[in-house]
UniProtKB/TrEMBL annotation:
InterPro entries: Chaperone_Skp (IPR005632), Skp_dom_sf (IPR024930). Keywords: Signal. This is Periplasmic chaperone for outer membrane proteins Skp. It holds the Pfam family OmpH. Gene3D superfamilies: Skp domain. It comes from Puniceibacterium sediminis. It comes from the Bacteria. Residues 1-25 form the signal peptide. One of its GO terms (molecular function) is unfolded protein binding. SUPFAM superfamilies: OmpH-like. The keyword Ribosomal protein does not apply. The keyword NAD does not apply.
Amino acid sequence: MPPLAFCARFALVLSLLALPVAAMAQGRPINTPLVIGEAASPILTLESDRLFAESAFGRRIQTELEAARNALVAENQRITAELTEEEQNLTDRRGGMDPAAFRVLADAFDEKVQRFRDEQDEKARTLDSRNEEARRVFILAARPEISALLRETGAALIVERRIVIVSADAVDITDMAVERIDAAIGDGAGLLELEP
């Protein structure tokens, strides 16, 4: 079994065992909301995708990336229309041209189309890498706030909620983390600016 799979299963077993024990020890129901300074469980959960998506930083990045994607789609459509017109013009001229001369123009046109595809594919890959870079910067900026929540709740571990099969809502700190991170870094404009 790969080490990561073992760790995930071990964390799951711990969380399943810890929830009822922690709730009973504190004399409260399992789904009671988490209170700072009073651990609902030694293990807390966090949804990292939702943390990014619902944070001011994540919303700003997604808005900027969506605008860049829309601009890329519009550019693709414009260039495709130009190439289609150029191709039709070339086809219309074919009948009155020497076949060798036409072949030179057709080959040049094919190279132009391939260059366009390569350039646009590179732009799309750049947008994807910007998204990944933004997530990396966000996690680095969010880590101190998440660590503070761990200390303040008295918990020992925070795990990704996606790897947990069952947990009480009371141990999920995602909403609390979003609020703390928004207060600390806002939309992250000083941390990362996406180029237009």
